[in-house]
Structure formats: structure tokens, C-alpha cells
């Protein structure tokens, strides 16, 4: 094929253009924030809950929290240089922990006084 006329490489193309996710009629849509609950609900709906046992890997969760805390401390100085307050930085990382399902509601952001 001529240069510029090749087929797109699916490994470098967007998921949207490769997989056409909007063309699929989904029966179940889950979210990463509630992954464990969504999986349990799905298994219950297909009557497979008693056949499959899910174990929460607390070691992995603690490792991921540690990584996020290390990232937090590595980036604090740069974030402050960008004009963020310490409280804003903590709030952003608290949200990261929540969205990665490393902390669960009703966990609230502690009152941070620098």
C-alpha cells in the first residue's frame, strides 16, 4: 500500500473507533468506583453468586494506597508552585483514592490544617 493509505493500526487507534462501543446493546453497565458491588449484583442477576466467591485483596489495596501517598508527596512541591493550596492538593488526592475505589463512602475528607 502507498504511504498514507495504510489501514489504521488498531493498537494505536482509539477504542471508540476500533470497538464501536455505542453500537453494543449493553445488558449491564458497571463503574470502577463501585466495581465490587456491580460484580456482585451482576452475579446475583445471572444466578451465579453462589458459584463464584470474590475475595477482596487488602494487601493490593494497601499497596495502591501507599503508591498514591508516595505520588502525593512527590508532587506536592510542584502543585504548590502551580498555585494550589495544601488543602486543594489533599482534596484532589482524596478524590483519586475514592475514584480508584481505595477508600469507600461515607469516608469524608478529614479537616486538614497545615
UniProtKB/TrEMBL annotation:
Query: Which Gene Ontology molecular function entries are recorded, alphabetically?
Result: sulfotransferase activity
Keyword entries, A-Z: Carbohydrate metabolism, Glycoprotein, Golgi apparatus, Membrane, Signal-anchor, Transferase, Transmembrane, Transmembrane helix
- Membrane topology label: Single-pass type II membrane protein
Q: Which GO terms describe its cellular component?
A: Golgi membrane
Tell me where it resides: Golgi apparatus membrane
Family annotation (InterPro entries): Carb_sulfotrans_8-10 (IPR018011), Sulfotransferase (IPR005331)
Q: Establish whether keyword Ribonucleoprotein is in the entry.
A: no
- Its EC top class is transferase
Recorded hits in Pfam families, A to Z, give:
Sulfotransfer_2 (PF03567)
**Has keyword Nucleotidyltransferase?**
no
GO process annotations (BP): carbohydrate biosynthetic process
The record's EC number reads: 2.8.2.-
Q: Which domain of life is it from?
A: Eukaryota
Give the family this protein belongs to, as stated in its UniProt record.
Answer: Belongs to the sulfotransferase 2 family.
**What is this protein identified as?**
Carbohydrate sulfotransferase
Native organism: Owenia fusiformis (Polychaete worm)
